[in-house]
């Protein structure tokens, strides 16, 4: 089978290009929009070590995905830097033919300690989640009273190490919308790209309602009042953020408008949970158990490739487009901390 004959598109003619890999469901934060402290308490049944995909299993799966057209990987979680030896996984993934880009999404607290190894492993880019510059607001939002200090240090060190850095800021109405301008100000005139994310109805536990969403339009008009902006074309068709640049040359920002202006038509992403379930949409109810196929059914690489091809070929997900302003009532939606953002 030559490489090209294995490329696949789904029922809506979307190829598969990106794979987000969650390496743990645990986290040192308890962000209210993701893992509320009340529900993810000390007794929460997080996955056991033996339930997690091993690095070798992840590598085997990515090798087949690369044959289907996956070029970009994003390592996420939970908090991915809690997974021991993460740089070793990245080094292996970086060797896979066809993989052009490996990025990491992290809350940044453990970055200073691990940065050098991550850089040496072949990691190309880092997204750091930071929802406020004001220390009080940040401490409240992360649910663990952790200060911005280690996160800002991690961001600075990543930049000093020459890694491109983007910031992800989820904005919740009445909680941290006061931070839109201070954050824009903080990162303006730096190479860091600040991206605002509309609060999404992922999972069943974050109390989402449309009223708590600050929309792309609202975010842009707020920033425009202080720092005039103009839109910029996307870098590539499936880019999730809409880009804007400061008219005075102070750099660019992005907005990910999954709620008010969804982009399912260009969605080329699949997600692999830490325990090996493959999800073809952030809002899918059920994953395909790849760990079982590898561990119990001992699928050969070629059989696994055919299985993945089959799963993607049947995909027709477009949840955000169908949802509009009203959450669709789906029992047992998957939590963001489990599926990986
Ligand atoms: N712990 C890492 C972090 O926070 O960067 C990686 C995992 S986290 C689930 C990945 C991204 O998902 C973060 O940028 C986070 O802000 C975003 N996220 C989580 N819950 C969200 C929600 N309900 N709406 C929008 N974005 C969300
Ligand atoms: Fe943890 Fe990231 Fe979820 Fe916050 S968004 S609770 S840092 S996994
Ligand atoms: Fe992709 Fe599903 Fe999000 Fe639409 S809702 S952009 S299909 S992950």
Automatic annotation (TrEMBL):
Binding site for S-adenosyl-L-methionine: 33, 78, 129, 200
PROSITE patterns found in the cross-reference section: MOAA_NIFB_PQQE, RADICAL_SAM
Key words, A-Z: 4Fe-4S, GTP-binding, Iron, Iron-sulfur, Lyase, Metal-binding, Molybdenum cofactor biosynthesis, Nucleotide-binding, S-adenosyl-L-methionine
Radical SAM core domain ranges (all copies): 11-230
Residue positions binding [4Fe-4S] cluster 2: 264, 267, 281
Sequence positions that bind [4Fe-4S] cluster 1: 27, 31, 34
Function: Catalyzes the cyclization of GTP to (8S)-3',8-cyclo-7,8-dihydroguanosine 5'-triphosphate.
Oligomer status and interactors: Monomer and homodimer.
Xref: PANTHER family: MOLYBDENUM COFACTOR BIOSYNTHESIS PROTEIN 1, MOLYBDOPTERIN COFACTOR SYNTHESIS PROTEIN A
Protein name (Swiss-Prot/TrEMBL): GTP 3',8-cyclase
Protein source organism: Evansella tamaricis
Organism lineage string: Bacteria, Bacillati, Bacillota, Bacilli, Bacillales
